[in-house]
Amino acid sequence: MASERIPIIQTAGLTKVFKDFWRRDRVVAVQDLNLEIRQGEVFGLLGPNGSGKSTTIKMLLGLLYPTRGRISIFGKAPTDVAVKSRIGFLPEDSYLYRFLDARETLDYYARLFRQSGLMRTERIERLLEMVGLTHEARRRVGEYSKGMARRIGLAQALINDPELLILDEPTAGLDPIGTRQIKDVIRDLGARGKTILLSSHLLADVEDVCDRLTILYGGQERAAGRTRELLRQNELTQITAERMSPELVEQVRGVIEGQAGSRRCPNEKCGRPNPPDARFCTHCGQALGPAPAEPTPASSPRVVEVCEPTDRLEAFFLRIVAEAQAANIKTSGARAAGKLPDFLSTVQPSGEGMIESLVSAARLPKQRAKPQEVAPPVAEPTGPSEEVIAQLTAPKQTKPEPPPAPTPPPAGPAPASGPEREERSRPPVEADRSVIDNLLKQPDRSSDGTDQ
Amino acid sequence: MGLISKELVWFVPFVLAGAAGLVAVRFLLPRVWAVARHTLAEALRLKIAVFFIVLMVLGFVAATTTEGDGTVSGRIQSFLVYSTTLVGLLLALLSIFLSRSVSEELVGRQMLVLMTKPLPRWQYLTGKWLGVTLLNTLLLALTGTGIYLTVRVMAAQPPLNEYDAARLEHEVMTARHVVPFELPRDVFRRETDLLFKRNMEEGRYDGIDGFDPRAERDRLYKYVEGRWRNVPFGQYRDFRFSNVLCERDPETFIQVRYKAQANTFPPDEVLRTRWIAGDPSRGTRLQTQDRRDVRGRFHTVPFSADTVAPDGTLNVRVVNVNPFYPEEPQFDYILHFEGLRGVEVFFRVGTFEGNLLRALLIVHCKLMFLTAVALLFVTVFSFPVACLCSVTIYVLAAVRGYLKDALGFLEEGSVVTVFKTVFTGVLKVLYLVIPDFAAYNPTETLADGRNVTLAWLLLAVLYLVIIGTSAAMLIACLLFHRREVSEVSV
Prior knowledge:
The structure holds two protein chains of two kinds.
Chain A: E1 7-19, E2 25-38, E3 42-46, H1 53-60, E4 68-73, H2 81-84, E5 87-90, H3 102-112, H4 117-130, H5 146-158, E6 164-168, H6 176-191, E7 195-199, H7 203-209, E8 212-217, E9 220-226, H8 227-231, E10 238-241, H9 246-256, E11 263-264, E12 273-274, E13 303-307, H10 313-326, H11 350-363, H12 365-368, H13 386-393, H14 419-425, H15 433-440
Parallel strand pairs in A: 3-7, 3-8, 5-6, 6-7
Antiparallel strand pairs in A: 1-2, 1-4, 8-9, 10-13, 11-12
Chain B: H1 2-7, H2 11-28, H3 30-45, H4 48-64, H5 72-98, H6 100-107, H7 110-114, H8 121-155, H9 162-172, E1 175-180, H10 185-201, H11 213-229, E2 230-231, E3 236-241, E4 253-262, E5 270-277, E6 287-294, E7 298-304, E8 314-319, E9 335-337, E10 343-350, H12 352-378, H13 383-398, H14 400-409, H15 414-430, H16 443-447, H17 454-482
Antiparallel strand pairs in B: 1-10, 2-9, 3-8, 4-7, 4-9, 4-10, 5-6, 5-8
Helix pairs in contact in B: 2-3, 3-8, 4-5, 4-8, 5-8, 5-9, 5-12, 5-13, 8-12, 8-17, 10-11, 12-13, 12-17
C-alpha cells in the first residue's frame, strides 16, 4: 500500500563531510544514505548522538548542502522556495525571538507564507488554542518555559498547514501531558495523510507513532523498515489466552515440547515429562499425584492470539547500536560508555543515618527531652543508636502512635495557594483536534495564498 | 513661506519615490516587508535605537553650549557642525551595529527556522537592509526636526550686533549658491611657454642632470599663477565669474566673499581696499565698496544684483590702494588671494530648511551604503569581525582625502618608502571600491549657508545608493546564498 504512494522525500547516496579551515575532510557526518519517505507515512529517524540525524534533517531542509548525493523533496531541490512553502519544521530547540510575544511570533512566520491578514489571525488563534497558550499569547516568548516554547515551536511549524512535517526531538522538554499532546497531534496529522519525519531520542514516542523507521549509526543506515516488522522477534511465538489453570499450562507446555498429555515430574531436580497415565516419575520415581481432569469444552479458555512477540524499540535500538559498535563503525558522536573512573569515591551514608536518627528520635518522648543526646556531628559518622533500632524493630507490643487523621478529599475546587495546586485544579489540557481539522479542511492550496 | 514651499518642491519626488518603493515592497515583496518590520521591531524593542537617541540628545545639548565666536550666528554654525557630524557618526555606528541581527540569528539559530520558510535569502537580506534603512529614516527625521527646532530657538535670541543679525540672515540661515572665480588659464599657459622658451634660450637648464621639461613647465605654471594672484600696491586685479544666475533685481544683492593675505602687515593688521563690481560695457550697474578688513579672514562684501550682466557674468575688481587716504595712512604691501576660495560670489538660491533636508538626505545615502557594507561583512564573518571590518571601511571612506595628503607628507627614506609603497598600493586597491565620504559631507556647507545642491544629492544617490549599495548587497546575497546557515553539528 505504502509503495503505491508518492515519494515525498528521496535521497540517493547522500553524503555530508564537514571540512576544516584548510578544506581537509574532518568528519563524515552522513554516508551514502538512501531514504524514501512516502506520502502519509510517519517516519522515524533514530540514532545515538552524532549519528547524523540532525545533519540529515538539515540537508533535507536546505540548511546544509550535501557533499555528494541527491535530495528530492516533492520532486524538487530542498532549496526551492515552492518546496519550503509545503514544509513545517520544528527544530530540536524552538529558537524563538525573545522580544516577540507568541502571537507576533506566529504572525511573523505566517507573513513569510504570504497569508492574508484574515487567514493569519484565524490560524494564529486556533493554533494558540491548540497548544494551550491563548492566555499567555501576550507574554514575550523569552519569558516562556522550555515546554511553552516547544508548544509555540510546534504552532509555528503548523502555521502553513504543511504537507510534510519535520520534527526534531518534538517532545524534548515537554511534560507528560505535553508529550501526549504532541503524540496525539502527530497521530492525527498522520491519519490525515500528512507526511511526518520524526527524529527523537525518546524511543517510546517513536515506537508509538511511527510507521517506519531508520536507525543511523556513524552516518550510515543500520536498520530500516516498518516498525512492527523490525521489532518482531521471529525466533519466538507468543500465545495469548484467557486465564488457564496450572495443569492446563502444564499440558500446553507438554504439547509445545512435542509430548501431548505428558505429565511433568514435580521434583525440582528432575522436572522431566512422563506419559499421561504414569503415577510415578519414570526417571526418578517421584509420585506424580492424581491425573488432571480433562477440561470440559465449556470451561476451556479461549485462545486469543498466537503470534510472534515484539521487542521493545529501546532493546532493538540498543542491540543495533551495540552491533555497530562491535563492528567498529566510525562515529563522530560518543562511543560506548566505559566504567566509572576510579577517583569517584563512595560517600558514607553518615548524613542519611543522622537524619533518620533525628527523625526517629523525635518520635520518642524520652529523647525529645534530651536533644543534646541526638546523633553526633557529621565528622564522626555513626549509624542510628541501638535504642532507636530496637524501638523500630521491636514487635508491636508498644502502643503505636495513632496514624495521622486521613485528610478528607476536597469537596469541590481546592483553594489555590500555589502553582502546584493551580496546576492540579486546571483541567487536563488536550490537543484541540478541531484546529487540525480546520487546518486540513482548507478548500484548496491556492487559497493558502502561497506563491508557489 | 512661499520660498520654503517653492524650494521644497524638489522633495516631493523623493517622498513619492520612497512611498512608492515601500508600497511596492509591501505588496509585491511581502516577505521582504515582513523581515523589515521584524528588524525595525527588534531595534526598537531591544532599546538599541533608544540608546542612540539618548546619546544624540546628550550630544545636541552639549552642542548648544558651544560658543563659536560669541555671536548668535557663530553659535548656530558651531551647533550645526557638531550636531550633523554627531548624527552622521552615531547613525553610522547604529547601522553597523544593527547588522548584528543577522549574525545573532545565525548564532541563536533562529535562522534554522527562518530558512525553512519560503523566504529567499536575497529577500531576507534586503528585508534586513530595508528595516535598518527605515529606522535610519525615522531617526533622521526625528533628529532633523530636533536640529531645526534648536536652530530656530537659537536664532530667536537677540543678536550681538547689526553685523551678527545680517550674518545670521544672509550667511547662515540661508542657502547660497557659490561661484568661484575663473582663472585665466590660457594666459597662464602662454606666459609659461614664454618663460620656458626664454630660459631655454638663456641656457638656464643646460647641464642639469635628469632635467624634466614637463616638471619644469608645471613649476613655471604655478609661478605664473601665484604671481597673478598677487596684487601689488597701486595695481588692481579683475576677477571674472560666470554663471551667476541670480535674479538681477536691484533690491536683492549678491555677496563677494574673499580672504586676503599680505606680504607685509600694516601695524593695525587691517587691509584697506576698494572693490568695484559690474561692467557698464555689458549693461550693468557699477558699484564700489571701500573696505577695512582684518587680514587672513573671510569677509563678505554685498553688491547689488544688477551688477551682474544679463548673461550671468560678473566682473569684480580689487584695487590695492587705501581709499581712506589721506585720513588713514597708506601702506605698501602686496595682496594675495589663495586658492579657489580666495574670492567667491554668493547669491541666495534657497532656504535653510531645504538645505538642511538635502544635507540629511546625503547623510542618509551614506548610511544606506554603510548598512549594505555591514550586511555584506556579517554574511561572511561573525559579528565582532564584521563590525570591525565595517568600521574600518567607514573610517577609510571618511579619511580618504586626509590619508592621501598624509602619505604625500611622509619623508622619503628606505623604510618609509617601502611602507609608503605598500600602504599606498593597498589603499589604491581599496579605494577602487570605497567611496570618498568627504566628498559627500554636507556639514560645513550647511553651516556656511552654502547651497547643498540637488545635483550633489543626486550624485550621492547615484554613487552611494544605486551603485555602491546595490553592489554591496549583490555581493552579500551571492555570498549568503552559498552559506550553510546551520552550525556544524554532527
